[in-house]
Write a structure and sequence with these properties.
This protein has 444 residues and is α/β, with parallel strands linked by helices. The protein has helices spanning 3-10, 12-24, 76-88, 97-109, 122-137, 172-176, 185-194, 208-211, 219-229, 249-254, 280-283, 305-317, 322-345, 380-385, 389-401, 419-438, and strands at 43-47, 50-53, 58-61, 115-119, 141-145, 178-181, 198-204, 233-237, 260-263, 274-278, 349-354, 357-362, 404-405, 410-412. The protein folds into two domains: 3-70 and 322-438, Aspartate Aminotransferase, domain 1 (Alpha-Beta Complex), CATH 3.90.1150; 76-317, Type I PLP-dependent aspartate aminotransferase-like (Major domain) (Aspartate Aminotransferase, domain 2), CATH 3.40.640. It contains 16 helices and 14 strands. Helix 6 (172-176) links the parallel strand 5 (141-145) and strand 6.
Length: 444
């Protein structure tokens, strides 16, 4: 049987659920990243580093709640806090002490956080950060970098001169207010010189796509220096990197203090939650007593008690950095093993990544050494190419057949992943590559 035929045979209940889903949900999914051909798996339960689908298949999980679960599924401390709060209520329609404590935990960990405002997602956090920056600077335009992901709202989904794609449904005027450029300092300088209406720069702290295209060493520091010297505001999007690269995020590691920081994912311990944190002078534009024009910000589920309870428990648990170090060490072992197998089978490609996130890319003239790659030492054309479309679906199907759920073109590691998980993943990786080789998937 082919990889896809095996996949279909192993997941009859998921196939049935997808047929139902496709009648009520566009493409049968609620997140673009969960779409999969011929159908996605449907999960019934999860615990630690594992999850089980509706057909009873068990997986080593490398999706990890799209990056929200540094502590794995159902960490006892987070679960206990959430269950205790669930008994009290999920929504008071009023302030509560947990939201104050949650903000205090953020301020303890994030260097740029003098004040905090909670949202319900990372998309909302970057939207709020950009609005605050425009209100404070008085300048309507902002600069973002090509392929850097900041959510799905209108201001951040525009293409660039490197892409002809125009997102449907986004007003042209909105797109015109965001200049999208390559992440190179000489391009930044040229762009700012030609557009005096730009007052803000937003950057994904890991580089494009959660580190798929990492930033050159020193870029963030040089960018921060430039923004300070030229009176520009800097928003650091740490939705993915916050609390994962270190307890204080990339900004702690790099010694950078942006004006505003967007946070989400780990922030809420696996429940919905985002935040904007930053300099008091900017955050004060949300205050009712401001004389400079208050920035409005409602939001029914902002800092809801259930998310706040999980968020407080999670941030306290990860505050010493031990969980981050464990996840990073595991990731490096995993990528080294994956590269070793690519080399053994003679398949050009790389497993690489930063912190506890890994990416997969195929191609190049040389075979990788059996070691970890941080991304900058992978040929740029290979990084940019990623996983070819002809390989993407069969590879993900084959890994699922082997009991491993990747996150599309890579994966995210938690502190609960064990050496046994890595061994099982390596078995699945070897079997998947061999099957794809046999089917001729890697053929030119």
């Amino acid at each position: 049987m082919t990889v896809e035929e095996t996949y279909v045979e192993l997941h009859p209940t998921s196939k049935k659920i997808y047929a139902r889903a496709d009648r009520s949900l566009p493409s049968g999914v609620t997140h673009d990243g969960r779409f999969m051909r011929p159908f996605p798996i449907y999960v019934d339960r999860a615990q630690g580093s594992r999850k089980w689908d509706v057909d009873g298949n068990e997986y080593v999980d490398f999706v990890m709640g799209h990056g929200a679960l540094l502590l794995g599924h159902n960490h006892p401390r987070v679960q206990e806090a959430a269950m205790k709060q669930l008994e009290k209520g999920t929504h008071y329609g009023a302030g509560h002490e947990l939201e104050v404590q949650w903000a205090e935990e953020v301020i303890k960990l994030v260097p740029s956080a003098e004040e905090v405002r909670f949202t319900s997602s990372g998309t909302e956090a970057t939207l709020m950060a950009l609005r605050l920056a425009r209100a404070y600077s008085g300048k309507p335009a902002a600069l973002k970098f090509d392929r850097h992901f900041h959510g799905w709202h209108d201001y951040v989904v525009g293409g660039s001169k490197y892409s002809e794609a125009i997102p449907p449904g986004v007003p042209e005027g909105t797109l015109d207010s965001i200049e999208v450029i390559a992440p190179e300092m000489h391009v930044v300088r040229e762009t700012i010189a030609s557009r005096p209406d730009i007052g803000t720069v937003i950057v994904e702290a890991s580089g494009a796509g959660s580190g798929t295209l990492p930033l050159d060493e020193g870029f963030l520091k040089e960018l921060r220096r430039y923004t300070e010297e030229n009176g520009l505001l800097m928003i650091m999007d740490e939705v993915v990197t916050g609390f994962r690269w270190s307890e204080g995020g990339v900004q702690q590691l790099e010694g950078i203090t942006p004006d505003l920081t967007a946070l989400a994912k780990i922030l809420a311990g696996g429940l919905p939650g985002g935040a904007v944190a930053g300099r008091k002078e900017l955050m004060e534009r949300l205050r009712f007593s401001t004389t400079k024009g208050k920035v409005g910000h409602p939001g029914t589920f902002n800092a809801n008690p259930l998310s706040a309870s999980a968020g407080v428990a999670c941030l306290q648990e990860i505050s010493d950095g031990s969980h981050q170090r464990q996840a990073i060490e595991t990731t490096r072992k995993l990528t080294a093993g994956m590269n070793s197998e690519l080399r053994r089978l003679g398949i050009p490609g790389y497993a690489y990544g930063q912190s506890s996130i890994f990416r997969l890319a195929f191609g190049g003239d040389e075979l990788p050494e059996a070691r970890h790659y941080d991304g900058l030492d992978v040929p740029p054309e290979v990084r940019a190419g990623g996983i070819p479309s002809a390989v993407y679906s069969p590879l993900n199907q084959a890994m699922i057949n082997g009991g491993v759920h990747l996150f599309g073109s890579g994966g995210i590691v938690s502190s609960t992943h064990t050496s046994e998980d890595i061994a099982l993943t390596m078995d699945a990786w070897s079997a998947a590559l061999t099957s794809l080789q046999t089917q001729g998937v890697f053929a030119d």
